[in-house]
Amino acid sequence: xxxxxxxxxxxxxxxxxxxxxxxxxxxxxxxxxxxxxxxxxxxxxxxxxxxxxxxxxxxxxxxxxxxxxxxxxxxxxxxxxxxxxxxxxxxxxxxxxxxxxxxxxxxxxxxxxxxxxxxxxxxxxxxxxxxxxxxxxxxxxxxxxxxxxxxxxxxxxxxxxxxxxxxxxxxxxxxxxxxxxxxxxxxxxxxxxxxxxxxxxxxxxxxxxxxxxxxxxxxxxxxxxxxxxxxxxxxx
Length: 236
Hints:
Blueprint: E1 11-12, H1 17-20, E2 26-27, E3 31-35, H2 39-50, E4 64-68, H3 75-84, H4 89-94, E5 96-100, H5 104-122, E6 126-130, H6 143-164, E7 167-172, H7 179-192, E8 195-202, E9 205-211, E10 219-222, H8 226-235
Parallel strand pairs: 3-7, 3-8, 4-5, 4-6, 6-7
Antiparallel strand pairs: 1-2, 8-9, 9-10
């Protein structure tokens, strides 16, 4: 089943044929989550580049805001992906505006206090938030406070995508330990997103499962050769 765009909506495709044949892309108004596998990082980097492509090429013709909650931003991967799309790496990096947080309080301040101003300043149609739950697992943040703040972030982002007609995509990984808190945070996030794409690896293939969109069938891609190079960067 293909979801049609309204006249004013824009779509950002992932650019894997097996995925694009099922999922036409993220639409303005989407608050989405990549969940469950380290390749989520690579997908955020890829979309940070693809968003800069013209709309007829599956992009948004837009700058990108990257809120780094997991200290994951890697300019070398961005440069590699840019070259794959025949874009100038330096110019591509200049159109990605990175804000890095090292505590849960810094991340919440970036989202509540600076994100809307950044959207106005840069005119971005895409916001990427890496490893959105990680900082809230810190033992220095009381559990009740962490869950309370995180729930406010979820509500705020869910409303912001509609108010600003943008796309917000976050990544979330099942970190070890702090099971009870992690369970609550992930439940809040995955329950509040308009689309959750879970990634599962098995026998050299990466399966995409589209939660909250039962009309979309799961699909798989090979983890090589194209994706293998990017995965190596993530291990460095």
